[in-house]
């Protein structure tokens, strides 16, 4: 299995995804025409840039191999390649999800084993 990719979702988005079995995207994803993901090396910057101070978040790890040709790696910040899904995310592709709490300084706390496969 390839290294997991990550989606930061609100609790409401994650609850709806589990209820329906698919995630069509957050408002920014719908506006851009694809679901934004990050690698383990990118997700902390994504959280800091787009989710500062948010406490109602889940970190969702996804198996990129389960997404097929709908997953594309495209340049973004400074030319870095980011995973973009041109389609919906099936809950069956999710490896695990965890809360994304804040520390006392307001910085998101990520799991120590970020980048590892299924739990």
From TrEMBL:
Family matches, as Pfam families: DUF952 (PF06108)
On the tree of life, the source organism's domain of life is: Bacteria
The record, for InterPro entries, names: DUF952
Specify the protein name.
Answer: DUF952 domain-containing protein
Question: What species is given as this protein's source?
Answer: Fulvimarina endophytica
């Amino acid at each position: 299995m390839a290294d997991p990719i990550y989606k930061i979702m609100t609790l409401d988005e994650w609850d709806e995804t589990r209820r329906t079995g698919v995630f069509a995207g957050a408002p920014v994803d719908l506006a851009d025409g694809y679901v934004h993901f990050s690698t383990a090396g990118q997700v902390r910057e994504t959280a800091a840039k787009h989710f500062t101070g948010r406490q109602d978040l889940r970190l969702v790890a996804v198996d990129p191999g389960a997404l097929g040709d709908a997953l594309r790696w495209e340049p973004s910040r400074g030319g870095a390649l980011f995973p973009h899904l041109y389609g919906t995310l099936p809950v069956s592709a999710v490896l695990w999800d965890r809360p994304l709490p804040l520390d006392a300084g307001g910085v998101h706390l990520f799991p120590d084993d970020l980048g590892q496969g299924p739990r």
